[in-house]
Write a structure and sequence with these properties.
Blueprint (H helix, E strand, L loop, with lengths): L2 H13 L4 E2 L8 H10 L7 H20 L4 E5 L5 H9 L5 E6 L2 H14 L8 E2 L20 E5 L9 H15 L4 E7 L4 H7 L6 H17 L8 E8 L4 E8 L3 E5 L2 E5 L4 E8 L3 H10 L3 E7 L5 E7 L3
Parallel strand pairs: 1-11, 2-3, 2-5, 3-4, 5-6
Antiparallel strand pairs: 6-13, 7-8, 8-11, 9-10, 12-13
Helix pairs in contact: 2-8, 3-4
Length: about 325
Amino acid sequence: MSELDFFLSDTLEGLSKDPRTVPCKYLYDERGSTLFEAICNTRDYYVTRADLALHDEHLPQISALIGRAAHVIEFGSGAGIKTQKLLAALDQPRAYTPIEISESALRESSSQLQKQFPSLELRPVCADYTQPIDDAELELSPPADRRVIYFPGSTISNFERDDAIEFLARMGRIIGQHGGILIGVDLLKPAARLVQAYDDGEGVTADFNLNLLDRMRRELDAEIERDDFAHEARFNAELGRIEMHLVAVRATEIKLNGHCFKFEIGQSIHTENSHKYSISGFKQLAEAAGLRSTQVWTDSDQLFSMHWLVNPE
């Protein structure tokens, strides 16, 4: 099936559920990705600033822990500033393997990084990192002394608990006995602060969420009245997560591929989760995946964390 076929199939399946949902990966078309970059620069969204501050403060220690001649593998890669900072800080990295589902984005980011690091061996892999990666794609000759998976930002927060455990366990199999995982984890904080970050005062996150409806109209020929829905961010205290919803502000319907999905006022499409963890809570999650968190760094404001995960000896 093509990517468009999957989009249609997943949307029909999700809108048929109760409660209704659409997988969050469909928020990230070209415009969605541009809007997300804009979100990262809003006053209310603290995550990116805190993550960068953590890198700036702790990169010497992180680099020393990773060691010399490591093979760095980045899931959901880019030529972003965090990747550049890490590679510049490392001692003669053996190779860098960016894994990205978008071929054009992968080609562009790899080209930028190769210009910045001309002596670095780049081994880009076009694939969906949420699915198993053929180990042959990650092999080097001769092999590196250590594989390090780099997963900055807070993407792990989008996974449900069981999916996160499975994903972390798969990472553990990739790094092997001598490797490590450098993973960013957003920390629990007061609900009001979290809701503000995901419903910024500039309205960028709302536009990002509503763009999903525009994409459904444009790519799937869905009949939707965009103004019949509004963005809403909610904190689910029981599950420790921020939820993004598209909430019907009046009775409406979505017609798609011969189906008609009716919405009463207040009914929503659940579009994304962002789980927040305490440091101890994420350590427990890692342990459930068979991994051990041996080092944790935070920014000075204690907003964001980064864990070093290894396989137990």
